[in-house]
TrEMBL record:
The lineage of its organism: Archaea, Methanobacteriati, Methanobacteriota, Stenosarchaea group, Halobacteria. In the C-terminal section; belongs to the transposase 35 family. In the N-terminal section; belongs to the transposase 2 family. GO terms for molecular function: DNA binding. This is Transposase, IS605 OrfB family, central region. It comes from Halorientalis regularis. The keyword DNA-binding applies.
Amino acid sequence: MADDCVYRTAITRLDVSDEQRALLEETISEWKRGCQIATDLAWNRCQAKSDVQSLAYDPLREQTDLGSQHAILATHQAAEAITGCIERRSRGEKASTPRFTAPTVTYDSRTLTLFDDETVSLSTTENRIRCPLVLPEDDDGFQWRFLDSERWEVTESTLTADGDDYFLHLGFRRPKSNNQPNTAEDGTVLGVDLGVENIAVTSTARFFSGRELHHTLSEFEKTRAGLQRTGTRSAHRTLEQASGRQLRTVRDEMHRVSKGIVTEAVRYECDRIVFEDLTHIRKRTDDAWGHRWAYRKLYQFVEYKAERHGIAVEQVDPADTSKRCGECGFVTDANRPTRDRFECRACETEANADYNAAKNIGLRYVRRGQQSSRRTGDGQLALKSGTVTPNSGFTAYPDGFEAEFTDKRRCGTTPPTPSDAGCWSHRRS
Ligand SMILES: [Zn+2]
């Protein structure tokens, strides 16, 4: 695990001929078989990459059509999968023997070469093939960001099949500026807005409705207020029973929402989940005790669920985040004609108000990193359609990224660090 590097993944579709498609299909199939053979050999015997490699390399060369480097990579993949299983079990989670079913194959700098003419050459079970990358029309951002840059080098990458289409998840890395520990400056941030109508909305436009919860909590608060006025011993007992039941419902709901938020952060390869400062939330919820309790629970649940994925959870001052335009930065009360709508007076951006706030909360954190004295910032905010940084602007995910999100994370190949879903930069200068 090279913690002294910043990782980015750029996803691009490949333009492949029928012949190349057949070769890639065959390579993926042999790769899955190879990983499985290596895993079955090493299971209960070893888990270190070097051990699995020396145990399984020869059998892989004999039993599959994988080339030498792909055979080595397959043994490493097996080692990672086994290690992942053992770790999950040590945490008391269920983990069955790894099965390699995802239509993917791993590449490294020996098996993949990127060329300046926007083509890539890939090792297959037979010859190397060379095919064009299908870049978005405005591809100068991509060139600028990774290919033409001395700073970024290609690292482990993954080829994924989706029907007849092939997507390359190009891994890039560069050394961290002045060897700081992983900070906001170098990460992808998921902003989260908390509210009543929507209990949570992420900067990637995932909405968690708060209607049910609001109903439960209102009932609870009514019961609570009524019984407290009564003040008798039996009223207390009734309160305890009622609160036990209702708070359990809220707790379950907060578990569900926290899981959703963390899943969203993992899916968009975020390093940080950023909430507004919880002490400020009181103002927006009319001092409702139940809601504040719910938000505190939610925050705690997100924090401990995120930790398992190496994702940090932070809070920022939410001042103006509800009336600032997430697109142009213009701030005025008039940007919020109703509680639900956001309509920027300056740039005419219209959005759901909570979604706009979620973007602002995330951006505030990213900007904080960029305004630090070191100015080493390479942080970005995860949006549904791409990422955004304060300096270089919006970066769209290429077509197909959305489809990719529906795939299960490939077994045993989490990136070396929580990496960032950085893609093509469409610079708005
Ligand atoms: Zn605006």
